[in-house]
């Protein structure tokens, strides 16, 4: 298994399905789990602001901070995270295809909006 630099994954720990997703990634990552630092958006609001990311934007889309400080968001953040897990590398490749990526982004954005509205957290 390749040794990766640590990435910070800013995720919505209030969301039950997001927590389940995290648990799945941790299980599938195996030993590579130590290369992924999970950061709850609600606990890292000031750190996100310092990076130019509104906490509301971080709730609406997954953000991953690479070792060099670059932030990747949305489908590209998922691709970066999935590439860390051998089982998910083919999926990371597929969702990055030009004909799939835009449609998947639209579906994801709609799902997040419905989830946050249902929870009374969409502003």
Q: Could you please describe the fold and organization of this structure?
A:
With 123 residues, the chain is α+β, with helices and mostly antiparallel strands. Helices cover 48% and strands 13% of the residues. It has 6 helices and 4 strands. Strands 2-1-3-4 form a 4-stranded mixed sheet, covered by helices on one side. Helix 1 (16-29) links the parallel strand 1 and strand 2. Helix 4 runs antiparallel to helix 5 (89-95). The relative contact order is 0.15. The mean pLDDT is 91.
Topology:
Elements (H helix, E strand, L loop, with lengths): L6 E5 L4 H14 L6 E5 L4 H6 L4 H6 L2 E3 L5 E3 L1 H8 L6 H7 L5 H18 L5
Helix pairs in contact: 4-5
Helix and strand element order:
EHEHHEEHHH
Radius of gyration computed on alpha carbons? 14 Å
Shape: globular
Mean pLDDT: 91
Name the helicity range: 40-55%
Poorly predicted tracts of residues? none
Class inferred from helices and paired strands: alpha+beta
Short overview:
The chain has helices at 16-29, 45-50, 55-60, 75-82, 89-95, 101-118; strands spanning 7-11, 36-40, 63-65, 71-73.
Keywords, please?
alpha+beta; 123 residues; 4 strands
